[in-house]
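Throughout this chapter, every protein is written as a compact record of paired, labelled lines. An example of such a record is reproduced below:
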Amino acid sequence: MATKARNVFRFIRTGVAAGAFAGGITHPAPAQAVSRSPQAAPLTPAQRQAMLRAPSNTFWSTRAPDTVTADIQTSRGTITVELPRDWAPHGVDRFYNLARAGYFDDSRFYRVVYAFVAQFGIAGDPTIARLWSQQKLRPDSARTPNARGTIAYAQTKPTDRTTNLFINLADNKSLDSLGFVPIGRVVQGMEVADSLYSRYGEMTMADPPFGDGKRLYRESNKYMDAEYPKLDRILKVTIRRDR
């Protein structure tokens, strides 16, 4: 119980506040998802880059399908997640559109705490990471607990979710009362999530000299690859299209 309590404290103190390290940047909030496009066409690489740099574009208002299935290809194997939109409409729409735009591609699992959480969601390009750290997401109401295998956004409060997400590596019931809202669950590859490199723990976001949260957003992959080369990677996130 003491270990779990320490994990929850660390989660509040550091991991959920990843966006706070990128302060000083102001950009218009992205449009809320309203248009229905269950079979949105894939984007070209150039279109993806353009969309990532334009968070107020109507692209970001695309409504996700009722159930989103995504394959997260990692350096350890593939994790498949299923996101029922009725669990968290705003959160699922955000993940769906970020994945379509390639936001998660070539990024890192930058915070993995053994038997607790595996966190990701800082873009490999620091300019994109800083831009999206300021794009707040409207709150969702919790409809399911933070059970092992569920995926949720990191936050300090329900109104400051952006792009950082975590996979629950255990039943983290203590996070329910703190307002963390699962948006989906791992349906295949949980053993991959369990195997992600965890010996760095909180170090990427710790205060100097152990880490540097500001540098994390200032340099993103460059910082992580230089200082924490064993971090596992997200190679690509692919949204499965209906057959």
In short: Helices lie at 2-13, 45-52, 89-100, 126-132, 190-195, 213-219, 221-227. Residues 2-13 form the longest helix (12 residues). The radius of gyration is 16 Å. The CA atoms of residues 2 and 8 lie 10 Å apart.
